[in-house]
Design goal:
- Strands 1-10-9-6-2-3-5 form a 7-stranded parallel β-sheet. A 3-stranded antiparallel β-sheet has the order 4-8-7, with helices on one face.
- The protein has about 250 residues and is of the alpha/beta class.
- The protein contains 8 helices and 10 strands.
- β2, α2 and β3 form a beta-alpha-beta unit.
- It has a single domain, classed as 3-Layer(aba) Sandwich (Rossmann fold), CATH 3.40.50.1360.
- The chain binds 2-amino-2-deoxy-6-O-phosphono-alpha-D-glucopyranose (GLP).
Length: about 250
């Protein structure tokens, strides 16, 4: 696992966007794994600016999002579908047929999970997976204790995750209690992984990730064994991490 240390959120966003744009330019077909949350918003803004200025095309991209809340429809302002549409998809040349986000409205959630996992395989797996990290080490919505072997599945959200995401809702009661998420194995199988972290809120997570053990009680720790994982983190997020230079 390699770290690219940057100054702040703006630099992190720009560096990650450039990383993605380079891949888009150098491959004829790309399967991108996308994330939601506050962290990647700046990256998406840069991708949009680049699309408008340089016309980098998304015509050959297929995307798979990490997760979705159960019970929120596509047009719910807090659904991840809506987030992706508003923050990226509606601004670039990607058609709705090219994008994949699990549906939290399917009455058969088990088959939704299986179909989602199969679809990723049918597309030959994810080339580049973009990731944020929860303060408890969650990736996607894989909470501490989730098996490293897990595939796309339904999860109950912890109180801390619901509290962290409550800022997007009018009250914590409105935050769904369950979600569908790609599993840890589904994420780990990506050919390349780019994890982003910015600010004080991610300091504990960075210390546990980089200085701690590989353990299911800290889901992101598995990424340390991934052959092609990069973290782009800013100075504040890395404050407190011992021996950052070992990961450069
Ligand atoms: N499911 C998402 C994760 O994919 C995201 O990484 C995490 C961190 O969010 P933020 O980037 O807003 O800190 O929040 C949510 O729980």
């Amino acid at each position: 696992m390699k770290i690219i240390e940057v100054k702040n959120y703006q630099e992190m966003s720009l560096a990650a966007a450039q990383y993605i744009i380079n891949m888009l330019k150098n491959t004829s077909k790309l399967t991108l794994g996308l994330a939601t949350g506050g962290t990647p918003q700046g990256v998406y803004q840069h991708l949009i600016e680049d699309y408008k200025k340089n016309g980098t095309s998304y015509a050959q991209v297929t995307s798979f999002n990490l997760d979705e809340y159960i019970g929120l429809s596509k047009d719910d302002p807090n659904s991840y579908y809506r987030y992706m549409y508003e923050n990226l998809f509606k601004h670039i040349n990607i058609s709705l047929q090219q994008i994949n986000i699990p549906s939290g409205m399917n009455t058969n959630l088990q088959s939704e999970c299986e179909e989602y996992e199969n679809k990723i395989h049918q597309h030959g797996g994810i080339d580049l997976q973009l990731l944020g990290i929860g303060s408890n080490g969650h990736i996607g919505f894989n909470e501490p204790g989730t098996s490293f072997q897990s595939k796309t599945h339904v999860v109950g959200l912890t109180q801390s995750t619901r509290e962290a995401n409550a800022r997007y809702f009018t009250s914590i009661e409105e935050v769904p209690t369950q979600a569908i998420t790609m599993g840890i194995q589904s994420i780990y199988k990506s050919k390349e992984i780019l994890l982003l972290a910015s600010g004080k809120a991610k300091q504990d997570a960075m210390v546990k990730l980089l200085n701690g053990d590989v353990t299911e009680s800290f889901p992101a720790s598995i990424l340390k064994q991934h052959p092609n994982a990069t973290i782009i983190a800013d100075e504040e997020a890395l404050l407190g991490v011992k021996d950052v230079s070992l990961f450069r």
